[in-house]
Amino acid sequence: MKELLSFLSDLHDNNNREWFATNKERYQKALATHRSNVEKLITGIRAFDDSVGMPTVENSTYRIYRDTRFSADKTPYKDFFSAFIARGGKKSGYLGYYLHISPKGNTWGEGSFIAAGNVCPESFLLRSMREEVLDNAAAIEAAIAASGFTLDTSNALKRVPRGYTIASNYEYLLKQKEFCLVRSLESEWFLQTDWVEQTLMLFQKARPFIAMMNRAIQFAYEEKES
Length: 226
Known about the structure:
Blueprint: H1 2-13, H2 17-22, H3 24-48, E1 81-86, E2 96-101, E3 113-117, H4 123-147, E4 150-151, H5 171-174, E5 180-184, H6 195-205, H7 207-225
Antiparallel strand pairs: 1-2, 2-3, 3-5, 4-5
Helix pairs in contact: 1-3, 3-6, 4-7
């Protein structure tokens, strides 16, 4: 992992095609390490949450090449490695387990972190998750508290959406436009020989939250198909 972190750190400082071409071998070695770690994470997650099904490294990881067509930032590469392990793969809409390795931060100013949840859900999925909140707000809040993660409220609404009524102490849940728990990690985390096992232990604590919200996701898909 030391070499992987070193590569990402240098890429952060030299995000251009010439440097990347010169360091292509370093990238390939770092990518191989990342893919191997993701495979271990998939195996470990399936051991405590078989609802994820049979995700693969391919449908759980992302390309390092950025799509700059509609972005003011024209740097060609992502300066982080990431993976999202979820039922049906990274584009399924289901909540899952996310790993983000970024030793120097990135375009959004974030460093390394792990997350449990989903982002930018389609409107019918978000509606179903909000209905889950209406039915089980106390249990959802308890699952968040027990997870050791923090609910990301950075993209929340300022007001409760129209048509929803709930006790004031749970209004913050209805204001969510996505349900994602986050936990920051220092780069030193990945230098532990057992960092994968330690990460799995953290992810496992978020499983009850994911299970409740994925119940809502599954219901939304079934309702849509009926």
